[in-house]
Amino acid sequence: MNVKDYDRLAVVGGGTMGRGISQAAAKRGINVLLIEQDSEKLKQAKEAIEDTLEREVERWSMTEDERNAILENIDFSVGLESITDELFILEVVSENFEAKKNIFVQLCELCKPETIFITNTSTLSITELASATKRPDKFIGMHFLNPVSKVRMVEVVRGLKTSAETFQRTRVLATKLDRTAIEVFESPGYVTTRVMMPLVNEAIQVLMEGIASADDIDTAIRLGYELPHGPLAMADSIGLDLVLSWMDTLFRDLGDSKYRPCPLLRMLVRAGHLGVKTGQGFFRYDNDGSQIPGSGQAAAAYTKFVVESRML
User: Fold this and answer.
1) 169 and 75 share a domain?
2) Euclidean distance between CA atoms 73 and 63, whole angstroms
3) Given Cys at both, which of 157, 203, 267, 283 links 231, Cβ 3.0 to 4.6 Å?
């Protein structure tokens, strides 16, 4: 593989993670082809990237020249047919097995045999996804954490048939992206999700039982263990619907009760309180996604809500 092959990357999916990865790659001088399924979603992705970069300029954390250079390194396109000779294809769509599988089945017909397929997933089986393709040896996972711009680590996940060559090349790509690559052999939740979800789930359980407020729970864990964020704020940032999806997957695949989602988490998702992206989760958020001080709901209010819900 030529060294210039690491200067190109196709990203399929312009959601939060897809945009973050595209920006991170473009910032490192990689030419990115960002692909969405229709023109409206592509427009939204482009505008979101432009808005993010503009805020960085306003905060003086980036110059206008740096912003312009990043935008020049990103091409926006509709449909998988726009992929040409990129040797790394990184899929970043929703955490849905069938959606991801369908994309890779299509890519198999469009891409060269040597193209490396990468999926960004936090819980799905790399081996199972790879089995739907004609190149399981060239299939691998890269689990980026949100926000991509701040987390300098990525889990590089090997499936059962992922070749050593594919892993090494993907690790070089991670280095090119200025990320520390952690080698992971496939297991539900890998390392980060599997370790963090019980902590998040237990924090939600403590809140539901009325032991402490959301504010105090996060303060205790954040200051007590010198973490940058508390578990409830972290869940809000991830998206409570995604947290619930991860918990359901881990509980189903591992069968361990510590991964059974807390009822309060399921209730909030059903109510549409998904965290930062909806402005309400365990805390409330302004239009910029900043947590409103003192907005952690009282523990007693949550307990009352749960009790009344079970009586209906």
Assistant:
1) yes
2) 16
3) 203
